[in-house]
Amino acid sequence: MSQTSPNRLDADIIIGSRGSALALWQSEWVKAQLEAAVPGRRVAIEIIKTTGDKILDAPLSKIGGKGLFTKEIEEALLEGRVDLAVHSLKDLPTTLPEGLELGAVTEREDVRDALIAHDGVSDFASLKPGALIGTSSLRRQAQLLAVRPDLKLDDLRGNVGTRLQKVEEGRYDAIILAAAGMSRLGFGDKITERIAPETMLPAVGQGALGIEIREGDTATREAIQVIAHTKTWRATDAERALLRGLGGGCQVPIAAYATVDDDGGMHLRGLVAAVDGTKIIRGETSGRAEDAVALGDALAKQLLSEGADELLDALEEHATA
């Protein structure tokens, strides 16, 4: 659990966290669970600023995607300064650095995307023609435009509070954020509509937390099992296998959502989209939850055979142009 490092805080378990309000909420929640599980256990949080936190004036798709929010924390893990990292699982790349592993996945919160609209808008359908929507996600942009090609989209970065302020000031007609993050921060009452997955399929791992640890750190792995949730872990394993099979890992319009029933059956949906929403390739499959990775791999191959490879190649060419 505690690997020797001259820069370690004095605690039994140290959590590495980004400094945003949402990241700190998530880390504080994990801290509370771990301390409650073993009376007297000391858990500390070390705030680590990532590259993604420092660059706020450029779209994620142009500056490197998901790894921007994990690299510095993973370095601290490998150096032994921290024992675990708490991530929004949707932000964690499917391939981790050598020496690190996913030690637990927590129970999923609301998986849906949330519409937060300016006064007078009651739901997605009532957005005026040409409404300006703020979102930094190409996945959301593509699915919005597929339903409403008239909408105007603008890249939106910054913490949740800053984004909400912009829509409240009328600088946007609406913005799209993850419903889970809104609820965790106490902003659930500001959600205009929770968008059904049938309209907007969520990001891989959305709503769940991923706990990253060092390989071979059995003490930390055992400690975090109190917050592990088997159904969510298997569902997100399928989603992450789909993303990995598609070659995803950068900021691309790929979405997936798996559900697991009480009998251990799994249903997985996925899609790959053109950024402008003019073409979306969808697929779904069912099977047993214990075959989660195989189901994700199989659906990835199906989507690629139906033309997803061409969409992904076009996205890569666009990103490097």
Can you give keywords for this protein?
321 residues, alpha/beta, D-Maltodextrin-Binding Protein, domain 2, Double Stranded RNA Binding Domain, five-stranded mixed β-sheet, 13 strands
Overview of the molecule:
By secondary structure, this protein is α/β, with parallel strands linked by helices. The protein has three domains: 1-106 and 208-228, Periplasmic binding protein-like II (D-Maltodextrin-Binding Protein, domain 2), CATH 3.40.190; 113-195, 3-Layer(aba) Sandwich (D-Maltodextrin-Binding Protein, domain 2), CATH 3.40.190; 229-321, Double Stranded RNA Binding Domain (2-Layer Sandwich). Helix content is 34%, strand content 22%. Helix 1 (21-37) links the parallel strand 1 and strand 2. Helix 9 crosses helix 10 (292-320). The mean pLDDT is 91.
Short description:
Helix content is 34%, strand content 22%.
**Can you identify the CATH superfamily of the largest domain?**
Periplasmic binding protein-like II
User: Which fold name corresponds to the CATH topology of the largest domain?
Assistant: D-Maltodextrin-Binding Protein, domain 2
- String of helices and strands: EHEHHHEEEEHEHEHEEHHEEEH
Quaternary assembly: single chain
